[in-house]
Every structure is written in C-alpha cells, then in structure tokens.
Amino acid sequence: MVRGCASNHEKRNKPTDLERRSLSAHQMAEPFPSDRRLSLSRAQFDQIVAHAREADPHECCGLIGGVRDGLAHTIYRARNIATDPLVSYEAAPEDLFAAQRAMRERGQQLLAIYHSHPRANDPEPSSTDVRLAYYPSAVYLIVGLGGNEPCVRAFRISEREGLWERVEYEVNNDIN
Q: How many structural domains does the chain have?
C-alpha cells in the first residue's frame, strides 16, 4: 500500500525560505538505491507518527535502519537538542552514535531520516532541511501534524543541487 496525504503528486522544487537545522548522521553501509522504495510496517509507521505527536509542539527526529532493498527493520528515536526545537531539530550525538552502533551490529544500513513539522498540513523540506541533507541516498520522511490527520511525506533531497523530490513509500500490514 502506498501511503500519502491529501495530494500525492511528485514535485521538484527549490526550498522555501524557512530556515531550520537538519539531522546529521553517518551513512552506515552501501547507499540505499534511489530506484528502491522504502517499505515500512504499519507498526513502524505508527511509531514514527506517535513520536511526532509526543514531541508536539516541538519537532521530533530519528533514523530508520534496514536492508538495501528498502525494507525497514528498526526505528531509532533521537532526542531533539536544537536550540529552538519548536522550529528546528538536531539529534543528540549520543543517540546518533547508539543508532549507528546498533545498525552495524544488526547488519543494517541507514535507509531514512525522519523528523516532524508540527504545524504543517502538507510537509515539505525547508531550505535548511535541504542545505543540511548530507545523505542523498537516504529517504527523508517529514511528519506534518497541522491537519486533522497526520500527513507523512517522503523525499529524496540533493544538498549539492539544492533540490528535493517527493517519492513514494509503502506501509504494509503484512510485515513486522
């Protein structure tokens, strides 16, 4: 099942003027191929949305580890230590290191980085999200909580080109 929000069209844009800080993490293994779709279980998807709701009105952040074919195995929450967590996020370094260590031990790689935009109805990467997106092979998930229901969007971001593109992802009830 492909997960989407009100409109689910692909988009390539220059970022908006809103400034934010973005998560910085080390790539663990071979890059996640851009022709593969991120696949989350329903429980993993619900964990990410729950994290965003718990952090609201602040932004949340975390990593998603899994295998090269795009199948997510583990959600790694990170504490947001940003100076202004209402409008930015910065993962606690010790949380990043712990996630990286766990991914290595489990034979996982970084598939995706997630964070929230608590007041967004239809979340898109900010200019700072784009500027600090150092992992072009990672999918970037953004959870918007500004509408009646959460809206989770997935993006490929090119920090070098200053561009982003909306991509599809899957939420499956059949995988754990």
A: 1
